[in-house]
Design goal:
- The protein is of the alpha/beta class.
- Helices cover 42% and strands 21% of the residues.
- The chain contains 9 helices and 7 strands.
- A 7-stranded mixed sheet has the order 3-2-1-4-5-7-6.
- Helix 3 crosses helix 4 and helix 6 runs parallel beside helix 9.
- The longest helix is centred in the N-terminal third of the chain and has 25 residues.
- The termini are far apart.
Length: 256
């Protein structure tokens, strides 16, 4: 059922189609999952994890070896598991209890015992301590931007001095004004969302996965105010949408 609440919709997705919600490819639909697709899914997370650390070591912190890692929006553990293989203690945060249950199951299957799973909220009240690595990829865009900005500020607060964060933001689209109005109509008029679901081959009440764009001026002002001066940017491009992965270290640099 459409709720117009991103948290409830994400929990619904976690119950009915968790792997496809994390990586929207047809092979990850619930009915298509098998040993091969599970292996492919988690191997894609390992490759991405390797690439992220290569970039961090090349551009921000040579020999980077975090002791405490936080992944915001950990889902079923696609990145959480390879992070746990690199780091002594990892905290995975997700708003969906169903996602966390599946992530726990996948960790147990692999004998991973250094992961703590926490139900998320905007203040991250279930998270204790600070971290020298924080990661979030293709998550914040599914959260309304005002809430996402508050969460980003909280993540930066949890980053230790000298720590590194890698956060992904969507920021622009090539869609026409009419096409940009469709997500608003889907959120505001449940019948429109339901009919479009049917046209896409989904159930009428299939939950809405929001796609929100962030003002990078706001994000950069936040990082500068918090002393995250050492940074590196990688762009992402999904169909008709533009994003950026911000790699940054919580350290002050001299002004140029």
């Amino acid at each position: 059922m459409l709720t117009n609440n991103s948290d409830k919709d994400w929990e619904h997705l976690g119950k009915i189609d968790a792997y496809h919600a994390v990586a929207t490819k047809e092979q990850y639909r619930k009915g298509n999952l098998n040993a091969d697709t599970f292996s492919e899914f988690f191997e894609s997370g390992r490759r991405q994890c390797d690439t992220v650390f290569e970039i961090v070591e090349q551009h921000l912190a040579a020999g980077f070896r975090p002791m405490r890692t936080l992944e915001f929006g950990c889902g079923v553990g696609r990145m959480l598991i390879p992070l746990a293989e690199r780091c002594p203690h990892v905290v995975g945060v997700d708003v969906s209890e169903s996602m966390l249950v599946e992530a726990k199951r996948k960790c147990e299957e692999r004998g991973i015992t250094n992961v703590e799973l926490v139900r998320g909220d905007d203040e991250l009240r279930g998270v204790s301590g600070d971290f020298d690595f924080i990661h979030s990829h293709v998550v914040l865009q599914h959260i309304p931007t005002k809430r996402g900005e508050r969460i980003t500020a909280r993540l930066v607060e949890l980053l230790r001095p000298g720590g590194v964060a890698v956060l992904h933001f969507a920021y622009a689209t090539e869609k026409s004004r009419l096409r940009r109005s469709i997500p608003w109509m889907r959120k505001s008029v449940p019948a429109v969302h339901g009919v479009l679901n049917l046209l896409e081959g989904k159930a009428f009440g299939y939950p809405l996965m929001q796609s929100n764009r962030y003002n990078l001026n706001t994000i950069f002002r936040l990082l500068q105010a918090k002393g995250c001066d050492h940074s590196y940017v990688r762009f992402t491009s999904y169909p008709a949408n533009y994003g950026v992965i911000l790699f940054f270290q919580k350290t002050a640099l001299p002004s140029l």
